[in-house]
Specification:
The chain has about 160 residues and is mostly helical. The protein is built from six helices and two strands. About 30% of the residues are buried.
């Protein structure tokens, strides 16, 4: 048996990383629709901010390593979509931004980027946010409570 070294991710079928991550992004979009129904447009806006931060940080790291940014790599988009979905909808924007930056700059890129990370970057970002802002991470709003899009978030939360 001859072993052939190949770069990660090790997908053993005809599907590519682009199709796998594209399917994940479509699935996560359905979850954003549900979050919008329960909490309004703030949930979607948190997702857009997180995706922009993760994609920008990933592109910056790839460019600093002297490589060309691959527009078909949806892994930072998936990471950016997962992070706000695991947080309460009334979370401040700076927590989402910090979690996204930590996920890409500390968990993903120092180990070589796509397929070379030790664990899921979104999980690392959530763990970091939970350690830093545990009171905010476990303060969930009541469904249909009218969360402000910007500014202070209402204090009515469920326990």
């Amino acid at each position: 048996m001859k072993l052939l070294p190949k770069k990660a991710p090790h997908i053993r079928s005809d599907v590519s990383n682009k199709t796998v991550m594209g399917d994940a992004v479509l699935t996560l979009a359905a979850l954003y629709f549900m979050a919008m129904c329960y909490h309004g447009y703030r949930a979607v806006h948190l997702g857009l901010v997180s995706v922009a931060v993760c994609w920008g940080a990933d592109a910056l790291c790839v460019a600093l390593r002297g490589r060309r940014v691959n527009l078909r790599d949806f892994s930072p988009v998936g990471t950016g979509m997962i992070i706000p979905l695991m947080m309460p909808a009334n979370i401040p924007y700076h927590v989402v931004v910090t979690a996204g930056l930590f996920a890409i700059l500390v968990v993903k890129q120092p180990f070589g980027g796509l397929g070379s990370n030790l664990f899921n970057p979104a999980a690392g970002g959530i763990a970091f946010a939970t350690v830093c802002w545990s009171d905010l991470m476990f303060s969930y709003p009541l469904p249909s409570s009218g969360i402000n899009f910007f500014g202070p978030v209402s204090a009515t939360t469920s326990s």
